[in-house]
Specification:
GO terms for molecular function: G protein-coupled receptor activity; olfactory receptor activity. One of its GO terms (cellular component) is plasma membrane. This is Olfactory receptor. The protein has 12 helices and 3 strands; from the N terminus they run αβααβαααβαααααα. By secondary structure, the chain is mainly alpha-helical. A 3-stranded mixed β-sheet has the order 2-1-3. The termini are far apart.
């Protein structure tokens, strides 16, 4: 029957996401785990945004971009985890093909926006450490807004161009995706037309999307060179501590993304690919607020003040 489905050229109106349906025996444990991660991620990122907005001493470019990064993480979480929870409970879900494409666009656009924002944040640290006397002039409010808006527009347009490429395909089944969300390559496999060109262009585009990472590496090479020129060990430690949190987030984010999207699919089992995708989409969004809150004294002070005011009321 599956061969007949592939042979008949008809539009797909719905898809079935299997998720982690093959792990039904631990479904309750997975549900509780993912629900906990969902709540902690949302609360962590929202608290981070609230702390920055309520604390005047955090109204700086670094925290401005950090708020945008938290907004991206909240978008990731809302677009994927609620559906993941349904899949764990039901052993899979059925959604419309349109909703599947919308999720693909939302996830891909947010992923690209985060790449741009991480590059912008590294540029901000470069100016702060390498050009401290001109920092306030080079990174004023107007420059911050332009860089943030440019990151969002860049991500939305990049994925828009990928969807134009995606629209050249004809989909006729099967309707089943052995994944927990509508990712690009699993969805392309549902096409009954030749996808070789589309997959090659998408793979090449994934390398082009690493250009923000190259910019990040370039910024930090200049930062490290400047830090090494500082004579006192205390000064070197203080300068490095201002960007250590960002470095951790950058390497975890790009490390998981490279493993998921730039290693040959033939060398990974379906379950391994799901787990790696889970690391890229769920755990990294939890990592950002934890790293910045645990390693950043400014955020810690703002959260403590907020908690103190709440109890006084």
């Amino acid at each position: 029957m599956e061969d007949n489905q592939k042979g008949n050229i008809s539009n797909i109106t719905y898809v079935i996401l299997l998720g982690f349906g093959d792990l039904k025996e631990v479904g309750t444990a997975l549900f509780l785990l993912f629900l906990s991660l969902y709540v902690v991620t949302l609360c962590g990122n929202l608290l981070l945004i609230l702390a920055v907005q309520k604390s005047a001493h955090l109204h700086t470019p670094m925290y401005f971009f950090l708020c945008h990064l938290s907004c991206v993480d909240v978008g990731y979480t809302i677009s994927i985890v609620p559906q993941l929870l349904r899949e764990v409970v039901a052993g899979g879900v059925t959604i419309s093909f349109t909703a599947c494409v919308v999720q693909l666009y939302a996830f891909g656009a947010l992923l690209t926006v985060e790449c741009f924002l991480l590059a912008v944040m590294s540029y901000d640290r470069y100016l702060a450490i390498c050009w401290p006397l001109r920092y306030s002039v080079l990174m004023d409010n107007r420059a911050c807004v332009k860089l943030a808006v440019g990151s969002w527009i860049g991500g939305l347009l990049f994925l828009g161009s990928m969807l134009i490429l995606f629209a050249t395909l004809t989909f006729c089944g099967p309707h089943i995706i052995d994944h927990f969300f509508c990712d690009f390559f699993p969805l392309v496999k549902l096409s009954c037309t030749d996808t070789a060109v589309v997959e090659r262009v998408a793979f090449a585009s994934s390398f082009l999307s690493l250009s923000p990472f190259l910019w990040t590496l370039l910024s930090y090479s200049f930062i490290m060179f400047s830090i090494l020129k500082i004579s006192s060990s205390t000064g070197r430690y203080r300068a490095f501590s201002t960007c250590s949190s960002h470095l951790i987030v950058v390497f975890v984010f790009y490390g998981t993304m490279v493993v998921v999207y730039m290693t040959p699919a033939s060398g990974k089992t379906l379950n391994l690919n799901k787990i790696l995708s889970l690391l890229c989409t769920v755990l990294t969004t939890l990592l950002n607020p934890l790293v910045y809150s645990l390693r950043n004294k400014g955020i810690q002070i703002a959260l403590k003040k907020g908690a103190k005011l709440h109890w006084l009321k």
